[in-house]
Specification:
Shape: globular
Strand order of the largest sheet: 3-2-6-9-10-5-4
Number of strands: 12
Oligomer: single chain
Bound molecules: flavin mononucleotide
Number of helices: 3
CATH class: Mainly Beta
Radius of gyration: 15 Å
Distance between the termini: 37 Å
Number of domains: 1
Strand content: 35-45%
Helix content: 10-25%
Largest sheet: 7 strands, antiparallel
Structural class: mainly beta
Order of helices and strands: HEEEEEHEHEEEEEE
CATH architecture: Roll
CATH superfamily: Electron Transport, Fmn-binding Protein, Chain A
């Protein structure tokens, strides 16, 4: 299979939620990246994964981070998704956040938050897969932000 366009077209048919994955870098600066590669892996122990492109400026921060958080975005947070899809070290200057006890930036008003300890990372093609053990959970009422065929969508009854 060597048809990148067809590959993207097919993946686009797989509707996902949208998350912002957060951590701090070696200088304790907050990092955030929009990611829809998030998935559950295991219930016991509770493990989740996401994957980060090797071209990300934050790659080393995430590979070295002891802790990270998955912030699942609610339907009203598409501006946050677009914000954290930008490559910029100052993204947190204009965003409200709190710091967890483990020193991970958390985005308030997220639909759900999974705070994780990095369990394992895997070098895989043009991405690294990052597996985290979930340490703390939070969830809220509301609808999710969805991503389908390259566009943001909302749930419809
Ligand atoms: C809806 C959506 C989902 C994305 N999912 C991922 C992902 O799972 N992994 C990834 O590495 N990049 C993903 N991206 C792209 C990154 O958000 C973007 O390349 C990154 O923020 C660029 O900044 P950086 O170089 O500082 O990492 C996604 C972008 C969007 C809009």
């Amino acid at each position: 299979m060597n048809d990148t366009r067809a590959f993207r077209e097919c993946f686009g048919r797989f509707a996902t939620g949208v998350t912002v994955v957060t951590c701090v870098d070696a200088q304790q600066r907050p990092c955030g990246i929009t990611a829809n590669s998030f998935s559950s892996v295991s219930l016991a122990p509770p493990l989740v994964l996401w994957s980060i492109g090797k071209e990300s400026n934050s790659l080393q921060a995430y590979l070295n981070a002891q802790y990270f958080a998955i912030n699942v975005l609610a339907s009203h947070q598409h501006a946050l998704s677009a914000h954290f899809a930008q490559s910029d070290h100052t993204l947190f200057d204009s965003v409200e956040y709190t710091m967890s006890g483990n020193g991970v930036p958390l985005l308030p008003n997220s639909l759900a938050t999974f705070e994780c300890r990095t369990h394992q990372t895997y070098d895989c093609g043009d991405h690294h897969i990052i597996v985290g053990e979930v340490l703390n959970l939070a969830s809220d009422a509301g609808d999710p932000l969805l991503f389908y065929r390259g566009e943001y969508r909302e749930l419809r009854e």
